[in-house]
Amino acid sequence: MDRRTKEAVRYLGYGNHAVDDGTLALIGDSFDELDQTAGRRIVYRIFDVLFQSGGCMEIGGFPVTSKDLGKNLRGCESVVVLGATLGPETDLLMRRYSLTDMAKTVVLQACGAAMLEEYLDEQQEEIRQEAAKQGLYVRPRFSPGYGDLSIRYQEMILRMLDAPKRIGLSMTDGNMLTPTKSVTALMGLSRQNIACHIRGCEACNKTDCMFRRS
Amino acid sequence: MLSERLGKELLYFDGGMGTLLQSKGLKPGELPEVWNLTHADELVDVHRQYFEAGSDIVLTNTFGANALKFHDSKYGLKEIVDAAVRNVKKAAALGVRDGREIYTALDVGPTGKLLKPMGDLGFEAAYEAFREVMRYGEEAGADLIHIETMSDTYEVKAAVLAAKENTNLPVTVTMIFDEKGKLLTGGDVPSVIAMLEGLRVDALGVNCGMGPKQMLPIVKEMMKYSSVPVIVKPNAGLPKQRDGEVYYDVSPEEFADTMEKVLEEGACVIGGCCGTTPDHIRAMTQMADRRPVHPPAAKEDTIVSSYGKAVVLSRKPVIVGERINPTGKKKFKQALKEHDIDYILKEGITQQDSGAHILDVNVGLPDIDEASLMQEVITELQSVTSLPLQIDTVDIKAMEAAMRIYNGKPMINSVNGKKESMDAVFPLIQKYGGVVVALTLDEEGIPATAEGRVKIAGKIINEAGKYGIPKKDIVVDVLTMTISSEPGSAQITLDALKGVRKKYGVCTILGVSNISFGLPCRPVINANFYTMALQNGLSAGIINPSSEDMMRSYHSFCALMNYDKNCEEYIRYYAGQTGTVAAGPKAALGQQAGTPGLSLKTAIERGLKEEAYHAAAELSKTQEPLEIINQYLIPALDAVGKGFEKGTVFLPQLLMSADAAKIAFAVLKDVLEKKGGETEKKDKIILATVKGDIHDIGKNIVKVLLENYSFDVIDLGKDVPPEVIAACAVKEDVRLVGLSALMTTTVVSMEDTIRLLRREKPDCKIMVGGAVLNQEYADMIGADFYGKDAMQSVYYAQEIFAKQN
Ligand code: B12
Ligand code: SF4
Predict the structure, then answer these.
(1) Under DSSP, is residue B627 helix (H, G, I), strand (E, B) or coil?
(2) Which of A96, B438, B492, B724 has its CB surrounded by the most CB atoms within 10 Å?
């Protein structure tokens, strides 16, 4: 089983249970279809971060308040702000199947999520290599909605990145990203050499790490 | 006058604004439009430099000036637009020294939101936002409206309509494409051009996104399709980053060099976008030196489009799917009456899967609000299929309503040779754009001769010309008559088909299946007549693409006439098949016969759809449908549900079982209806994911299960405002509402919804679920019931309705 299949199985809630053949076949079909239809677009920019007291900071001049993000960014001098999406094509595909095949729809959701993660991991790796050239180390991705970082910051991120124009990523009045298979995230850049786990703190075994996001 | 110069002489736009303002201190994320008021001198300075560099058309600094983006600004929109226009005029007074005629263009960019159905901004709301700035712009003295950097055909349609309906200014549009020649929302060059030409813009083109080099192939493609002048405004290269700053690195000289190639392709208006400076524009105007332009030739292709796809009617015939139409279809009529939109959408998807290129949409029934239903069906269809649609109605109000909200350039069915019809339909085509089906009948009826029909076609084409509607936007239907009542009529139709093709060179369309009315074994006649019509020049057949016979005619024709390269499509469809036609309408489902021994219960438990179908059909020969439901269907679902609760069955399996059960249920329902037995009046339940939350998987599972237990679920979707839920509960007199939420932040909307429901519909019970909730939370927000999984919703619903009934 390749990693994205494993991830999709995990999103589907199988835990340690063996996955049945029917579902596995659906997962295979879904990835095939997504590979053909899904768009993959990303935009990111690097901004300076200034720390103030009480979980307050300024990223690229924008005020942000979040203790959890503050902890995760401690010691960083700048932040990669990014938005990525699998595009409206993916939503269309899921809508289309939601009419005729719910199982496929759910599996497509899971595969889409796995695909988005995989894409972000690849991009993050490139960013890591770029940063390394300048002696900078990348912290894990931190998204609005994690911990105490309000999803209202989504609007700020989209504006900072000019995301609607650059990758067609926008949001609803309720701060939901559209297209739905999308993420926004912040990643700290610091001179401190800590080797972060690409899958983030949850997958990392440095439980005593002082930057660990809760 | 600008409109007289466009396409006749070379005109120059200005260059980038954002990048220059950033160098003057504008921060990323700050609203640049505010600078019109706070930094007027800086703006006048930039505009002046562009005039000095030779620009004829200078854009106001109003790219993002709309009510949607300015909701948190302390400055009024009108104030900003006034100042913006003033700044350009002031700069012109300072910077234009050769007395040339110049123009202030009101710059209109996208709203920054995605329109429904992909996002949450309504078409009319977008229209309103554009209308507001455009009115201010005209009042302030702008000379034209330039809509730019658009990546969504739907949004651009709202903007163009707003401009045309509320101002008298010329309208130009440029869109942003990626390197593959696609919009971010999936549209391609021909689909964009077809729609914009239909909307009668004065010029169209491409801006932003990439540098002049990368833009060349797109410009080339635009020239191939466009009949109106083309505008090209590239960036100074692709955006790059250094020290957190975005920059562009194509030099003015290099920019000018490549713009020369752009001119050679045939662009009539050129300028720059992000990263270009007055130096770039100066180099460009010096290079171009007012050389003569060649106005674009009128193109002859008949194109219909949706937001993502253009269908060109050319030599290879296309298939228009006829199934979305209530005529003669009992189930479809019922679906319309019950407002069962899903049923209609499934008809659309089935036809797409069978090979349709365009879908005909007819929802006309007596006693139905056709205009609003048509709008709804069109919108919903466009959220699940990218096939272009054919709006089929005799109700002019419904026709206009649908054309207005259609995303793309639709096909319109139909106009005819009666004066009344042409007077009503042509103004709509002229305004919204579209390819119209012209029926060859008039006040005197349908001519009995081919010549008569050809003559009417000529009359219609001629009259259309008076509205500026070109021949390419007319597709002639010479009408199919039933041969059983009118012998000889097939020959007349075929002759007329050939006649209009030869005389006017227009595309043609026919409703094919009419031919066999009243005869036995209709598919045989239909398929053969279809082939004959194709042979006589039929461009588009309105047929049932799920009919194997028709598709055989189609694929054979294409293969034989060399429209199907290397017979690829033919082989794809028919490799491995023998020559006999599978019998019966259910052939698709029944093709691979299932394991006959597999009982219904096992089939459902294992989630095997085909087997469930066969098992149910088999059982229904010997047992009563209701008995089958109680003995096999429900126990099977129960077993699966219990397994899911225990964690031995997982989500996809649960859903596969539910789908299998649904199919079995449909078989039994058919049997019940054939026997004339009334299917019970079902209890209604509303389901919705609350406002602000788009996690709808859980809610959808609840829906599937409830439906399988014969509840009538009204699914309001996700991100649903409390008012919508309450209004629906009142209107439909619903006694149970299920709400789903998955985020801590949206539990609040759930609470709001409950509060509103209590006030508006006190006798209604409310159940809630979703991963963030628990019993305690549910009690706190005042729900009647908390269900930890989907099965609980069934138990609770049964309990509630057992009490009430
Ligand atoms: C799939 C998923 C998504 C998908 C959603 C696709 C879709 N159409 O639903 C996508 C990838 C789009 C998504 C996006 C986001 N998500 Co999300 N997502 C999930 C995930 C992984 C699974 C949710 C799910 O579908 N579960 C499976 C279903 C079947 O379970 P369920 O909904 O609970 O339903 C069952 C029961 O609860 C019950 N039930 C449900 N409803 C009802 C109703 C009634 C009446 C009854 C009786 C029963 C009942 O029955 C169901 C079947 O038994 C969860 C994590 C998790 N494990 O929960 C995060 C999660 C919900 N997401 C989260 C967040 C923050 C987001 C984002 C804001 C992230 C971001 N910054 O991009 C975005 C929002 C995107 C946007 N557009 O703005 C957080 C929410 C945090 C919180 N508690 O507030 C979660 C918990 C993940 C996390 N830990 O961070 N997400
Ligand atoms: S816990 Fe691991 S992944 Fe998280 S910040 Fe520390 S080192 Fe990086």
Answers:
(1) helix
(2) B438
Whether CATH 3.40.109.40 fits A3-193: yes
What residue spans define the domains of chain A? 3-193
User: pTM of whole model > 0.80?
Assistant: yes
**Is the distance from the beta carbon of residue A197 to the nearest atom of ligand 2 less than 6 Å?**
yes
To the nearest whole angstrom, how far is the Cα of A27 from the nearest Cα of chain B? 10
Give yes or no: residues B83 and B120 share one domain: yes
End-to-end CA distance of chain B: 74
Supply the CATH number for residue B69's domain.
3.20.20.330
Residues 6+ apart with CB under 8 A from A201: A72, A140, A209, A212, A213
Q: Answer yes or no: do B446 and B510 share one domain.
A: yes
More confident residue, B68 or B499: B499
Q: Specify the CATH number for the domain of residue B607.
A: 1.10.1240.10
Contact A100 B647 (CB under 8 A): no
CA-proximal residue: ligand 2, atom 8 (nearest): A196
In a domain, B741, yes or no: yes
Domain that holds residue B709: 684-804
Residues from chain A contacting residue B186 (CB–CB below 8 Å): 87-89
- In angstroms, the CA B47 to CA B31 distance is 18
Ligand having the closest approach to the CA of B783: 1
- A178–B656 CB contact, under 8 Å: no
Rg (CA), chain A: 18
Band (B579; pLDDT cuts 50, 70, 90): low
pLDDT tens-digit profile of B651-684?
888 888 888 888 888 888 788 777 765 556 679 9
C-alpha angle B258/B261/B264, rounded to 5°? 155
For residue range B479-503, what is the model confidence (pLDDT) as tens digits? 999 999 988 999 999 999 999 999 9
